Amino acid sequence: MQTVHSLDPLRRAVATLRETGTVALVPTMGALHEGHLTLVREARKHADHVVVSIFVNPLQFGANEDLDAYPRQLERDSALLEPEGVALIWAPTVEAMYPQGFATNISVTGVSEGLCGAARPGHFDGVATVVCKLFHQVLPDVALFGEKDWQQLAVIRRMARDLDLTQPHADAIIGVETVRETDGLARSSRNAYLTAEQRAAAVTLPTAMKAAIAAIESDTRVADALADLEKALLSGGFASLDYAELRDADDLALLDARSDRSMRLLVAARIGKARLIDNMAVAPR
Ligand SMILES: Nc1ncnc2c1ncn2[C@@H]1O[C@H](COP(=O)(O)OP(=O)(O)OP(=O)(O)O)[C@@H](O)[C@H]1O
Ligand SMILES: CC(C)(CO)[C@@H](O)C(=O)[O-]
Ligand code: BAL
Predict the structure, then answer these.
(1) What are the backbone dihedrals phi and psi of residue 282, each rounded to the nearest 5 degrees, phi first?
(2) What is the per-residue pLDDT across 52-109, written as a single tens digit (0 to 9) for each?
(3) CB-ligand 1 contact for 137 (6 Å cutoff)
(4) Annotated catalytic residue: which of 5, 36, 123, 169?
(5) Which of 1, 92, 213, 274 is the most exposed place for a label (fewest CB within 10 A)?
(6) What dihedral angle (degrees, nearest 10) is formed by the CA atoms of 199, 117, 254, 36?
(7) Ligand 2 center to 17 CA (angstroms)
(8) End-to-end CA distance of the chain, in Å?
(9) Is 36 a catalytic residue?
(10) CB proximity list for 216: less than 8 A, separation 6 or greater
(11) In angstroms, what CA-CA distances link 202 with 22, 25, 208?
């Protein structure tokens, strides 16, 4: 396994890999956990070589967010990736990714609006810009992303379609089911911000979501199910709710009633220093 930090060695290493097969890209911000390793294992089923990018992307963090606090642990991450058969780690410096004078922004409208797009203005521009660059840098045949970041996956698929990204095109973007702790909490690098007490309370998020889904599926009014979800989170130790919404799973249209299409319940809520997100399927009518 090789690790490179700047563009020329990356291009050389990728060219060498492409001589002997296909390439899958797994973009990450590091601080790896079982969720990321699942993406890597899935990637190996889809391509001969796996490239993992590790880059805490300043463009997708707002002024008052956790860019500085976000865990950076390249040595530990490398030790986790080596036994997974990863060929290459692309860990660019900020200067390599955004050279002096960098002035381009990629903005996807529609699916990036509302939800995390409303709570984190500019976030999805930052994600789209860096992911577009990663695709051009690594030229992967496929790329893998977690369903935990459902809206992000929708934004990236839209961008890939709209910009005719053939490497990889929208269908070559593979979504991987959310990996959870045994109590149901979605794995996230930001879970590390929680104290033991907050971590125990955080299970309220998946539990209250499942209760809301069961209520919606048995025809409780969506607004009532979401109001109960908010009450459960606040009484279960969460400080505030950013959003809890029922959306069309594909185009993310806001729904105020159960529909006959695939739906998703999406939630973001704050506990301690962490802002946790999760989403789950809701069965069509
Ligand atoms: N629990 C998980 N299950 C499946 N995929 C995941 C999970 N957590 C993260 N991923 C995916 O891993 C990729 C990299 O995510 P990232 O490095 O931001 O990790 P993270 O745990 O989501 O961190 P944080 O939520 O704290 O930003 C993304 O495609 C993300 O959706
Ligand atoms: C896709 C990504 C690596 C872009 O910085 C990031 O948003 C993430 O880790 O989900
Ligand atoms: N996992 C999404 C990256 C972010 O929260 O900035």
Answers:
(1) -120, 130
(2) 999 999 999 999 999 999 999 999 999 999 999 999 999 999 999 999 999 999 999 9
(3) no
(4) 36
(5) 1
(6) -50
(7) 23
(8) 48
(9) yes
(10) 222, 225, 246, 258, 265, 282
(11) 40, 31, 10
